[in-house]
Amino acid sequence: MLSRDLLESDLQGQTRVLKRLAQGASLDEVLDTLVEVAEESRPEMIGSILLLDQPSGRLQHGASRRLPDFYCAGVDGLMPGPKVGSCGTAAFTGERVIVEDINTDPLWEAGRELALRASLQACWSQPIIASTGEVLGTFAMYYNEPRTPQASDLEFVSSSADLAALAIQRVRYQSEVERERAVLKTIVSGVPDALVSSGLDRKITHFSRSASRVFGYEAEEVLGRSTSLLYADSADYDRLAQEGFNPGSSEAIDLTEIQWRKKSGATFPGEIVASTIRDEDGNPLGYLGLIRDITDRKIADAKLAASQDKVVQSERLAAMGQMVSAIAHESRNALQRIQVSVDILRYEIEEGTDARDDLDRISRAQQDLQHLHDELRSFAGPIHLDTTMTDVSRVWRQAWTNLHVSRTGRDAQLNEAIDGVDLNCQLDAFRIEQVFRNLFENSLTACDDPVRISVTCRNVELDGEPAISISVRDNGPGIAEELRSRVFEAFHTTKAKGTGLGMAIANRFIKAHHGTIKVGNDTDGGAEFLITLPRKIE
C-alpha cells in the first residue's frame, strides 16, 4: 500500500507541475513547484535544481526550498567537471550520479566541507537533458544521512528531471517566440507601408499601425471584416481574387497599382504586393498584403512631366528666338520700307477716297505686324536693361497716351491714387512701359464702356528693402480662378486676337527688375494686377 500511495503522490505532484506550466507560470515558479511536490512526496529528501548557463558554462541556482542560503551561494557558479560533486559531475558527463555517502566519495573531495557544514550526507543527481540531447541543468535529491536509492527513487529523480527539462524548454520556447514577436513587431512598426493580413475568407486578421495611418481605420474597426472595404472598385477586389487571393492559387500577386478607399471615403492610388501564408506542409492559411500609398509619387511624376514639357517648350522658344534674331534685320527693314511707302502715298492720295481707305488698312496691318515683331523679339531675345531713377507715373501715363488709337470712340478713363507715395525707382522706362501697355490693352479689351482703370501705389518693402507696390485694377468681369495660374504662360490668351505673349513678356520684364507681378480679382469686381518693384536694383 505504501508503494501505491507513493505512486499516487508522485502522479499528483507531476499533475500540479504540469498545471502550473499550462497556466503560463514563470520558470522560477514551475521549478519551485517541482521541488515542493518532490519534498512533499519524500519528506526526508531535500530537493535542488541547478541550471546550466550556456554563455558561461557554469551551473547556477535554479530552485531550492530547504537548502541553507550559504550552501546555495557556495554552489552557484559551479563549473561542471569529472569530480565536482554529484551535480557538477552529472552536468559534465550527462549521466546520473549517485553518491550514497558524501563523507567518503572522491567526487566530493572539493565540496565535502561545504556539504557537511550543511549537514548533507548523500546526494543523487540526475542531469536535466533537452530533447536535443543538450544538458540544461541537474535535479538533485539530498539527504541528511548516508542513503542508498531504491528503484522508485531512481524512477522519481529521472521523471522529475524530465519534468524540469519540459518546463525549461517550454519557457525557453516561449521566450524565443516572444522575442521573435517583438522583433517582428518592431520590423512591422517600422515599415511605412500598410501591412494587412487576412484568412482564406479574406477577412482581416492583422492591421498594422501604418495601415491605420494610410487608411484612417483603427485596427479594432476592421478586424474580422472583409478586405473589400479597402478597395475603391469592387472589380479590383474580384480580379485579385482570381490572380492570387484564393486557396488554389500558387502565385503571389506581383506589384499591382489600383485605387484604394480610406475610411473618409477619399480614394488614393496605391501599389500592392501580396502572397499566401502557408504552414510547414505548404497548406494555405491566409494572405499577406503590403500596400503603398503612391499619391506623392504621382504628384511628383506629374510635376516632372510638366517640367519636361516646359523644357521642351523652352527649347522650342530658344529655337524661335534664334529664328527671330536671324530674320529680325530683314523683317524690320521690310516693315520700315512699308511704313515709308505708306507715308509717301498719304501725300499723294486724297482723303475720303477708296484708295485712301485701302492705304489706312495697309497702315494698320503694318502696325499689327510691327507689334507682333516687337513681341516676339521681347519674349525670345535677351533682356538688357537700361535703368535710371524714374518717376514711374510718367511711364504708365506714357503707355496710356500711346493707346489713344485704341481708346478712340471709347468711354475710357485712367484714375490714379498716388498721394504721399514716393514714385521714384530705378527702372528701364521702355520695358516697364510695355508692361503697363499690356495691362491697359487687356483692360480695354475685357471691359465694356464705361471703362475705368485705377492705378494705386503704396510704399512697401521687398525682401527687406524699400520698394513700391503698384495696383492696376479695372471694372471688367475679372479673371476666372481656374485661369489665373495660366495668365503668365506663353501663348495663353483668352482674346480672339493676339499672340498670348503679352503677359509672359510683362512677367519677364518685371522679374528682370527683381520685382514681382501677381494676378487676382478686385473685391468690387474686375481684374487686379499687383506689381512690386524695388527702389534700387543692385
From TrEMBL:
Keyword field: ATP-binding, Kinase, Nucleotide-binding, Phosphoprotein, Transferase, Two-component regulatory system
Pfam families referenced in this protein's UniProt entry, alphabetically: GAF_2, HATPase_c, HisKA, PAS
Catalytic activity as recorded in UniProt: ATP + protein L-histidine = ADP + protein N-phospho-L-histidine
CDD domains referenced in this protein's UniProt entry, alphabetically: PAS (cd00130)
Residues of the PAC domain: 254-306
Domain PAS: 180-234
Any one GO BP annotation for this protein: regulation of DNA-templated transcription
Keyword ATP-binding: yes
EC number: 2.7.13.3
Domain Histidine kinase, chain residue ranges per copy: 326-537
One term of GO molecular function: phosphorelay sensor kinase activity
Residues in the signal sequence: none
SMART domains named in the record: GAF, HATPase_c, PAC, PAS
EC class: transferase
Annotated protein name in UniProt: histidine kinase
